[in-house]
Automatic annotation (TrEMBL):
This is Aspartate aminotransferase. Its cofactor is pyridoxal 5'-phosphate. It comes from Ogataea haglerorum. Residues 29-404 form the Aminotransferase class I/classII large domain. It holds the Pfam family Aminotran_1_2. The keyword Cytoplasm does not apply.
């Protein structure tokens, strides 16, 4: 008998299952709004011109394919620290004081997993992480596989399609002191709803009062405002909170999957704020002990591209333009769909949230039975009503609006 005879089939992955249905659909005007990956105005994947340029430089200059250190190359980590912590006074102070420890991770997922493992092993106050309700489907699995338990805090108000500020603040205020709390830095997945800056101040007040340990997950840096630097506004608040002594630490995971389009290259980073250089060295030595048995050292191709993009001024400027192109296109598609729904089809529902929500996703408010009917019309989206704006382009928006109109009236 096979060793695996008793293995039961796992339930199908929500999003991958949708892709299978989409691929099997023979309707030529089928629409895929499931995947969270950027598509251009023709509905095609896009390699960023800055990445193409970096590939060319790398092809000319690469001298080896050696292993990189366990925590990634020193050059990569220095450039990441500069990208994240050199644009505000508090960030600069943290860098100067040797309080930032950065390591390369395997994109956002791998970085979060390493942070989870580190917290579970070394954080003495709690083994529990609160995540927003709803959150990215993988968050709970990543953190629980890292040995932590998870709970939820209120986040989204289904009646107003906006942030449930009172619920959020109340749930954080009711948490056990010291609890870990995961926060989406910007472009919350799946809702597209972020706290405004003054709401972040209130969140930070509660985090400070309850001594919560924040983990910021930043997978869409640049997609909120169109600028990766402007999107650091909330990180600046956390930096300042540390410098002002309101909170003592926070953790950050960051991904280049979306903002450099390096999805399959698996490149990102994790950062921890420490008390100072001596603690940074101790923590780094233990971080190496966490990473080594997981995957020895991170992949180097994507991180070499990131090094080139962040250090070559012309390519860096191109990258900023590329992010702007992606972000502008998503905003355009939001407007186009809104215009079709309201002006062409005269849909009676309020679609303002389509315009107000940020980033790659819109939480439409469509109910499960409406989603089912959309899928019957060859429009594919997850059962929670989330649509990936990246899947909309000028040639399919009319069909999409018509289908949404039909299932909502
Ligand atoms: N966090 C959030 C909120 C995400 O949406 C994603 C991507 N879907 C990630 C992290 C990590 O993705 P990756 O591992 O591809 O960087």
């Amino acid at each position: 008998e096979s060793a695996w005879a008793s293995v039961q089939a796992a339930p199908a992955d929500k999003i991958l299952g949708l892709t299978v249905l989409y691929n099997n659909d023979t309707n030529p005007s089928k629409i895929n709004l499931g995947v969270g990956a950027y598509r251009d105005n023709d509905g095609k994947p896009w390699i960023l011109p800055s990445v193409k340029a970096a590939e060319q430089v790398l092809a000319q200059t690469e001298t080896n394919k050696e292993y990189v250190p366990i925590v990634g190359s020193p050059k990569f980590n220095e450039l990441i620290k500069k990208m994240l912590y050199s644009h505000d006074e508090a960030g600069k102070k943290l860098l100067e004081d040797g309080r930032v420890l950065t390591a390369q991770g395997i994109s956002g997922t791998g970085s979060l997993r390493v942070l989870g493992e580190f917290v579970r092993t070394f954080y003495p106050k709690s083994k529990k992480v609160l995540v927003p309700n709803p959150t990215w489907a993988n968050h709970v699995a990543i953190l629980e596989k890292a040995g932590l338990t998870t709970g939820k805090y209120s986040y989204y108000d289904y009646k107003t399609n906006a942030l449930d500020e009172a619920g959020l603040l109340n749930d954080l205020a009711s948490a056990e002191p010291g609890t870990v709390v995961l926060l989406h830095a910007c472009c919350h997945n799946p809702t597209g709803v972020d706290p405004e800056l003054e709401q972040w101040d209130k969140i930070l007040d509660v985090v400070s009062q309850k001594q919560l340990l924040p983990i910021l997950d930043m997978a869409y840096q640049g997609f909120r405002s169109g600028s990766p630097i402007d999107d650091l506004a909330i990180l600046f608040k956390f930096n300042k909170a540390v410098v002002d002594g309101k909170i003592s630490n926070f953790l950050l995971s960051q991904s280049f999957a979306k903002n450099m389009g390096l999805y399959g290259e698996r490149v990102g980073s994790l950062s921890l704020i420490t008390a100072g250089p001596e603690e940074t060295a101790r923590v780094k030595s233990q971080l190496e002990k966490v990473i080594r048995p997981l995957y020895s050292s991170p992949p180097s191709h994507g991180s070499k591209l990131v090094e080139i993009i962040l250090s070559d001024d012309a390519i860096y400027q191109q990258w900023l333009k590329d992010v702007r192109v992606m972000s502008d296109r998503l905003v355009e598609m939001r407007k186009l769909l809104h215009d079709k729904l309201k002006n062409t089809y005269k849909n009676p529902l309020n679609w303002d949230h389509l315009l107000n929500q940020k980033g790659m996703f819109c939480y439409t408010g469509l109910k499960e039975d409406q989603v089912k009917r959309l899928i019957e019309k060859s429009v594919y989206l997850t059962s929670d009503g989330r649509i990936s704006i990246a899947g909309i382009y000028p040639a399919n928006v009319d069909n999409l609006a018509k289908a949404i109109h039909e299932v909502t009236t």
